[in-house]
Amino acid sequence: MSAGSGNKNTEPWGSFDDNLIQGSGSAVIDMENMDDTSGSSFEDMGELHQRMKEEEEVTEEAAATEDHEDGEFLGMKGLKGQLGRQVADEVWQAGKRQASRAFNLYANIDILRPYFDVEPVQVRSRLMESMIPVRMINFPQKIAGELYGPLMLVFTLVAILLHGMKTSDTIIREGTLMGTAIGTCFGYWLGVSSFIYFLAYLVNAQITMLQMLSLLGYGLFGHCVVLLVSYNIHFHFLFYVLWLLCGGLSTLRMVAALLSRTVGQTPRLLLCGTLSVLHMLFLLYLHFAYHKIVEGQSPLRPPILSL
């Protein structure tokens, strides 16, 4: 029984051992296969991961390069836009300052105050002096640098011309008469003063534009006296006498002032001769041709001597 029992115990254990050996063999084979396949899979995954990483790095570098270029482009555009706005703002501010300065220049009456700051007594004395020629021409004579007296004389001359038209039998619209009288008087005062100042500049005469305006303006005092008398007293002989007396004295006064400020015979003759001819002929023009034009006389008809 023992042998039988031994045999009986041996067979099941033997079969178990065989199965164990077979199982162990199969386990070994499976492990080897698993090791082989797993090793190759890990290498492939590592290479794939490395490639993906490299591609990501390349993509990131390209994106960073594009962002940098875009940033530089946008930065240049932003800088140009900011610079343009700054330039436009500076131009606007400069124009605004110039406009404000010009407005203040013409709006501020204090700038013109020195040219009109004169006492009535001084104006009266200068009116009298404008009819008295001086003999001393060796040194420059003093010329008043103010515009109050000359401007008032020009307006007075305009009023005298309008008075002459009112006392005549001619019917004329007030606007046309007023505009013609103002244009004639102011045109002569400003135009002849500018022309004589230009000649004085050419011959190197020591006189300013302000002094020339003042000198010629006060020289119109004789014209005002002659026209005022001739409009109310209609004598031709009286007009010519006053033309030579009052017009001549005021012209001589201006000529003496210019002679004292000019050097050389030829410059003196040119400057003073031009002023004398223009000033004396202007008085004749106001007495004859001006009334003929304003009163609507025909150019073919002779001028009316009696007003």
Automatic annotation (TrEMBL):
GO terms for cellular component: Golgi apparatus; plasma membrane. Residues 1-12 have a biased composition (Polar residues). Residues 1-26 are annotated as: Disordered. Keywords: Cell membrane, Cytoplasm, Differentiation, Glycoprotein, Golgi apparatus, Membrane, Transmembrane, Transmembrane helix. The chain crosses the membrane at residues 147-165, 177-200, 212-231, 237-257, 269-290. InterPro entries: tRNA_Mod/Golgi_Maint. GO terms for biological process: cell differentiation. The keyword Nucleotidyltransferase does not apply. It is a multi-pass membrane protein. Involved in the maintenance of the Golgi structure. May play a role in hematopoiesis. Belongs to the YIP1 family. This is Protein YIPF3.
